[in-house]
Amino acid sequence: MENHVFAAVLAAALLHAGWNSVVKLGLDRGATVLLLAVVQAVIALPILPFVSQPATEAWPWIVAAAALHVGYKLFLVEAYAHADLSQAYPLARGTAPLIVTVVSFAFLGVSFAPSALLAILAISLGIVAMAVKGGSGRRMGGKALFYAIGTAVFTASYTLVDGIGARVAGTSSGFILWMVVGDALGMIAYAAWARGPAAFSAMAPAWKTGIAAGAMSLGSYWIAVWAFTQAPIALVAALRESSILFAVIIAALVLREPVSGWRWASAGAIACGVMIMKA
């Protein structure tokens, strides 16, 4: 992976941890992720006329990506409702690169150097290890596990669809911007069906966190999808999940969640994986 791509993905990781922490802080997380999606679309729409438009054959990929991002957000909200950030985030994000790697190798014909596989494994296992012991000392319940693992499946799925779709589209920017518009439409439709007018009135108290989360999420996503067109999807996905290092620091310093020595040791494994990938 070239230096500029590596640095960009690390920046995306920081932004990703930031917006997840904002969602965790939101009093009404459902309203926060709805506002997040709307903010992304509001930013995207004025830019769309000035970027290259996706190839016709990319539209099924854009629709699929938007649907997967909606599912991801809904599961993410439920995961955070049932577990600490420092529990749910590692389990949800750590298993996704492993899924992407297996699918890339088995079905997409992608081959990996031994060092790349070692880096992916170190990052993923380090992340998952963080979820083994809850920062608060409590065990994750069945619902928390279900939604965290479900979030991981959605993450792996949209990662693959985003990466392939952006390449088919011939423009990462056009793909990204149309996808976030579709994502917003899907979130609005779901909110109207599930909560009615209350979903939209609940956005008002969360507007500050929603705008911050939306801007960070779009920036992180834009960088990641561009990187998918520059390097193997599985490598980008694994490196992006180094965001857990930032998430643990935020959990400890901002959210005041207890972070054990086990977690810091796991963070060391992730850092080793990042260094192996860059070597």
UniProtKB/TrEMBL annotation:
SUPFAM superfamilies: Multidrug resistance efflux transporter EmrE. It is a multi-pass membrane protein. The chain crosses the membrane at residues 30-51, 58-79, 99-132, 144-161, 173-194, 206-227, 233-255. InterPro entries: EmrE-like, Small_drug/metabolite_transptr. GO terms for cellular component: plasma membrane. GO terms for molecular function: transmembrane transporter activity. Keywords: Cell membrane, Membrane, Transmembrane, Transmembrane helix. Signal peptide: none annotated. It is found in: Cell membrane. Its main location: membrane. PANTHER family: 4-AMINO-4-DEOXY-L-ARABINOSE-PHOSPHOUNDECAPRENOL FLIPPASE SUBUNIT ARNF-RELATED (PTHR30561:SF9), SMR FAMILY PROTON-DEPENDENT DRUG EFFLUX TRANSPORTER SUGE (PTHR30561). This is EamA domain-containing protein. It comes from Hoeflea olei.
